[in-house]
UniProtKB/TrEMBL annotation, chain A:
Keywords: Cell membrane, Membrane, NAD, Oxidoreductase, Quinone, Transmembrane, Transmembrane helix. The chain crosses the membrane at residues 6-25, 32-51, 57-79, 91-116, 149-170. Belongs to the complex I subunit 6 family. This is NADH-quinone oxidoreductase subunit J. It is an enzyme of class 7 (translocase). NDH-1 shuttles electrons from NADH, via FMN and iron-sulfur (Fe-S) centers, to quinones in the respiratory chain. Couples the redox reaction to proton translocation (for every two electrons transferred, four hydrogen ions are translocated across the cytoplasmic membrane), and thus conserves the redox energy in a proton gradient. The keyword Cytoplasm does not apply.
UniProtKB/TrEMBL annotation, chain B:
This is NADH-quinone oxidoreductase subunit H. GO terms for molecular function: NADH dehydrogenase activity; oxidoreductase activity, acting on NAD(P)H, quinone or similar compound as acceptor; quinone binding. Keywords: Cell membrane, Membrane, NAD, Oxidoreductase, Quinone, Translocase, Transmembrane, Transmembrane helix, Ubiquinone. Its main location: membrane. Belongs to the complex I subunit 1 family. The chain crosses the membrane at residues 12-32, 82-104, 116-137, 157-175, 187-206, 270-293, 313-334. The keyword Metal-binding does not apply.
Length: 204, 336
């Protein structure tokens, strides 16, 4: 039990610290690296709660795919960091407002727990205990039965976002030579190679 | 004090010994893998390979290691010092921690977690960070180009790899690696899922940046890609990490498709051999195929690599997921 406590505080402290470093690091690449560290700490916290599936998916999706593309873009961009910092001060009130709203919402949730301690139990679906059914199975049962329509709807939303991104960025450039592998493999020797005897001084 | 000893210190010591029991043989295997690769490629190209140091050149990997660590460490000017040194460490570290969930025989596993496959998949998808960080921190064009290629390549092939893993999971009904191997007691998955097996192997080649997908290194165009600025011990760490990753991917292929520690036929002369030997033989077979491919196939062009990943493997693996699910449901073969 005491080990779990130590682990929790290590993860939590590192999570907050790396979150602070994300916004305070001077180099944006360092920011992204700290963001990845923060994702890891969050995955560690999920593991401590016994949510092993969520923890692994967090690492696979966010660290393994999203953050790679983040890093990709940030490394490719050639930004003047001082220019960027000037703009940051102008956006500060808006950012503070968003932060305040989130904080108020968190406070409302925690307050709800204190006022009515059984509210969490009512809101949460009745999940069986971990020794009876594994984490993955419990999630699957819930998602594909009770919440199947919401699950499908979120899938469609993601699909639309994907199509939108493709439509926005797709442009047909004329004059680009592309390889058609099927055509290339289907070519026969007789069609493209001709062997001729060249007599000296006359050419082909 | 006695409670502290039996409840905390003793398990810790046992755990450390177990970790050493996995890591030390792994590193020895890595050393001899480099030797085996040079020997096999030598035989395929009708030359001798290393033959001077020790009997049959067996001591060659250790001589190479000694040479590498005795060399001068060079930090390029303008390089990002911290990230430059973290990158090889990360590569090596990730190549080692994945072995925590690999079952070597029934019950012989360091940590038998429920989501073993996801853990392996997560670790293998993190491998790209070592390369990207190395390429960026080196502050060199060649290294950076190698890093960019690697990032795009590994993200592309991960998608089809994930779908292939899902196909296997559909047939097993569990994400636990031990359960996956036990589900193959009747038939290894490489027989009913043969196209998936081939695609998984090719994706594993791309995921470990091996020939014919070794564009991030691409010595004929990028000198040595992301590794170009590294020397001495950091380079050795990259090298060890890369080969440990190859062995890991071979182990993953054996577990998912070749029945892990199971003997090829479930009766007498085969069952006398311990499971760990079968597992090692299967890994060795996959590694031999890695080297075989490297000695045979020319390097892919980059656009062809992307086309193969997105336009061939992704639709095909998606189709197989649907097909497998359909067959399992229709015939009522879904695992309970």
């Amino acid at each position: 039990m005491i080990l779990q406590g130590i682990a929790f505080y290590v993860f939590a402290a590192l999570l907050v610290a790396s979150g602070v470093m994300v916004i305070s690091a001077r180099n944006p690449v360092h920011s992204v690296l700290f963001l990845i560290l923060a994702f890891f700490q969050a995955a560690g916290l999920c593991l401590l709660m016994g949510a092993e599936f969520i923890a692994m998916i967090l690492v696979i999706v966010y660290v393994g795919a999203v953050a790679v593309l983040f890093l990709f873009v940030v490394m490719m961009l050639d930004i003047n960091f001082r220019e960027l910092r000037k703009g940051a001060m102008e956006a500060l009130p808006l950012g503070a407002l968003v932060g305040l709203i989130l904080l108020a919402e968190l406070a409302a949730v925690v307050g709800g727990w204190i006022v009515a301690p059984n509210v969490a139990a009512i809101a949460g679906a009745p999940t069986p205990s971990i020794d009876q059914v594994s984490n993955t199975q419990a999630l699957g049962r819930l998602m594909y039965t009770q919440y199947v329509y919401l699950f499908q709807a979120s899938g469609i939303v993601l699909l639309i976002a994907m199509i939108g991104a493709i439509v926005l960025t797709l442009r047909h450039r004329p004059g680009v030579h592309k390889q058609n592998i099927g055509v290339q493999i289907a070519r026969r020797r007789e069609e493209v190679v001709a062997i001729r005897k060249v007599t000296t001084g006359e050419g082909v | 004090m006695a409670e502290f000893w039996s409840g905390f210190l003793l398990p810790l010591i046992i755990m450390v010994l177990q970790i050493l029991a996995i890591t030390v043989p792994l590193l020895v295997a890595v050393a001899f893998m480099t030797y085996a690769e040079r020997k096999i490629m030598g035989a395929m190209q009708m030359r001798q390979g290393p033959s001077i140091v020790g009997p049959f050149g067996l001591m060659q990997p250790f001589a190479d290691g000694l040479k590498l660590f005795a060399k001068e460490q060079i930090l390029p000017e303008g390089a990002n010092r911290v990230v430059f040194y973290i990158a090889p460490m990360l590569t090596f570290f990730l190549a080692l921690i994945a072995w925590a969930v690999i079952p070597f025989d029934y019950g012989v596993v360091l940590s038998n977690i429920n989501v073993g496959v996801l853990y392996l998949f997560a670790i293998s998808s993190l491998g790209v960070y070592g390369i990207v960080m190395a390429g960026w921190a080196s502050n060199s064009r060649y290294a950076f180009l190698g890093a960019l290629r690697s990032a795009a390549q590994m993200v592309s092939y991960e998608v089809s790899m994930g779908l292939i893993i899902i196909t296997v999971l559909l047939c097993v009904g569990s994400l636990n690696l031990t359960e996956i191997v036990r589900a193959q007691e009747k038939v290894w998955f490489c027989i009913p899922l043969l196209p998936m097996f081939v695609m998984f192997f090719i994706s594993a080649l791309a995921e470990t940046n091996r020939a014919p997908f070794d564009l991030p290194e691409g010595e004929s165009e990028l000198v040595a890609g992301f590794m170009v600025e590294y020397s001495s011990a950091p380079f050795a760490l990259f090298f060890l990490g890369e080969y440990a990753n190859m062995i890991l991917m071979s182990a993953m292929t054996s577990i998912l498709f070749l029945g892990g520690w199971l003997p090829p036929l479930p009766f007498a002369p085969f069952t006398w051999v311990p499971g760990i030997v079968w597992f090692a033989l299967k890994i060795a077979f996959c590694l031999f195929t890695y080297v075989w491919v490297r000695a045979t196939v020319p390097r892919y062009r980059y656009d062809q690599l992307m086309r193969l990943g997105w336009k061939v493997f992704l639709p095909l693996s998606l189709f197989w997921v649907v097909l497998t699910a359909g067959v399992l449901v229709t015939f009522g073969w879904l695992p309970k």
